[in-house]
Amino acid sequence: MEFNEKLQKLRTKENLTQEELAEKLYVSRAAISKWESGRGYPSIDSLKAIAKYFNVTIDELIGTEEIVDLAEQDIKDSNKKYTTLICGILDCLAVLLLFLPVFGNGGTAETQSVTLFALTGISVWLKITFITVTILSILNGFSTVVVSSFDRPRWKRTLLLTGTALSVIGTILFILARQPYAGVLFLWILVIKGILVIKNK
User: Are 171 and 191 in contact (CB under 8 A)?
Assistant: First the structure.
């Protein structure tokens, strides 16, 4: 008997609906439905909770091969979660551009290094664009850090794509505007994120 059949049998034996079982295990009804239809397995923690609730062993619920597959899937999910978290933290590093003197102020005879807010040797619109890209990167990074702790794969994917797009835009924008230090910061963020995402696909 497969895990999904065993779970359904245990649930019906206790006269529980999927909704009631979900409440007891602190998961969504959709998760119970997914497990019972054989479209997925619970995490190791959820599996422990199921075994404890129905007073059975994990071995009675799931076979050895399935446990190995489940452990591998848990590792992959954990790696993806940490990748999302690290990518969010990297995007937050754009905050350094607001406070470090990495911009060349070319309006004087001698080029001076200044912070983004103190930058005067460029047009107002270009400065606003610099600030906008930097702040959007920071906000996206903060949102990614927050979302990384939730089970929302679509949100995570969207935020990772947005963060990558902002890193590309920032790199191109700062390099074309002859602000190499800011451009290199965005480029390093982009490269590290790319390596992490490719490694954990």
Answer: no
Whole-prediction pTM value?
0.68
pLDDT one-digit tens code per residue, 69-100:
777 777 887 888 899 999 999 999 999 988 88
| Neighbour tally for 19: CB within 10 Å | 12
Task: Please give the sequence-ordered ranges of beta strands (E in DSSP) within 15-146, or none if there are none.
Answer: 103-105, 112-114
Task: Go through 158-176 and write b for each residue having 16 or more CB atoms within 10 A of its CB, e for each that does not.
Answer: ebbebbbebbeebbebbee
Distance, C-alpha 89 to centroid of its chain: 10
32-40 long-range contacts, Cβ below 8 Å, gap at least 24? 32/7, 35/3, 35/4, 35/7, 36/4, 36/7, 36/8, 36/11, 37/4, 38/2, 38/3, 38/4
